[in-house]
Amino acid sequence: MINFNYETDFILENETDYKDWITLSIHSEKKKLGELTYVFCDDEYLHKINVEYLNHDTLTDIISFDYTEGDVISGDIFISVERVKDNASDYNTSFNEELKRVIIHGVMHYCGYKDKSKNDELVMRKKENEKIAMFHVKH
């Protein structure tokens, strides 16, 4: 099950398309969907979580709490819509493209991909691009 919650004035268009895509992405990694909850929020909301739970006094685009057990992908993913907008501008891409990247980034972490080293980061980008390309693929 995938849930979308909104703590800001942003609302995802076509939630069903996103749910189908996320599910397809998980299945393409030979994993099963458990329960994913996305919370779309602003910088202030995400900053509070970053300070309170992770002891990081910085702004970020995504914070994820991984509840995956075995091959069943579950977790809570918090996304700052403000950061995504800024990053889209910084990376010279569209807001929708950057949003998809961030949405699937958390899921790829749950599937076991890391991004701490340069090599891991390259693999993560490749996986994100692969999944973004699947967005409108019907199963």
UniProtKB/TrEMBL annotation:
Its main location: cytoplasm. InterPro entries: MetalPrtase_cat_dom_sf_prd (IPR023091), YbeY (IPR002036). Its cofactor is Zn(2+). Binds 1 zinc ion. It is found in: Cytoplasm. Its EC number is 3.1.-.-. Gene3D superfamilies: Metalloproteases ('zincins'), catalytic domain. Pfam families: YbeY. Zn(2+) binds at residues 105, 109, 115. It is an enzyme of class 3 (hydrolase). Keywords: Cytoplasm, Endonuclease, Hydrolase, Metal-binding, Nuclease, Ribosome biogenesis, rRNA processing, Zinc. Belongs to the endoribonuclease YbeY family. Single strand-specific metallo-endoribonuclease involved in late-stage 70S ribosome quality control and in maturation of the 3' terminus of the 16S rRNA. HAMAP family: Endoribonucl_YbeY. This is Endoribonuclease YbeY. The gene is ybeY.
